[in-house]
Design goal:
It contains five helices and five strands; from the N terminus they run βαβααβαβαβ. By secondary structure, the protein is α/β, with parallel strands linked by helices. Helix 5 links the parallel strand 4 and strand 5. Helix 2 runs parallel beside helix 4.
Length: 167
Amino acid sequence: AQGHNRILYNFDSLGGGADDQYGHGTHVAGIIGGNGKNSICSNCDVTIRGVAPNVNIINFHALGQAGQGTDSSVIGAINKAIALKDQYNIRVMNLSLGRPVYESYALDPLCKAVEAAWKAGIVVVVAAGNDGRTNYATYNGYGSITAPGNDPFVITVGAMNTKGTAD
C-alpha cells in the first residue's frame, strides 16, 4: 500500500504474504488514506490525497491474486481486527468485497462476523456489490446487495450510473 502514511500491521489470512497482488485493496486504501506523496513532483499538476490522508492503515489480506477468497479467510481477517482493536486503535473497518446472499443476515456467518466487529466498537463499511438492479424487471432491485452489505449493522456503500436514463 505504497503512498499511505503508515501501515502499522500486516495480517495474512491466506498464507503466502500480505501483498495485494490483485490491486483492489491497495486502490481502496489509497482512496481512503493516500497521503499524496507519489503525486508531488516538479511536473505534477495536482496533489492527489485520500479522504483521510493522516490515517494509519492496518492491512488484513483476505483475498487472493484474482480478488477472490473464502468466507473463512474474510472472517479470519475480521476476527483478527477485533483482537487487535485496542492495540492499534482500530475504529473503522472497510470491506470492499461481497458475495451472493444465501440466507438471512441473522444466520449468515459473514454477517455475524461484521456484527461482532460492530459490537466490539468498530464502524464497519461494506461495498453494496456490483450487481445494481440486475433483476430490475422481476424484483425491482431486491436482493442485489451482496453479503455482508445486507447486514443492518454495517454502513453499505454503493453507487449508480443511470447511463443517461434517469427519466
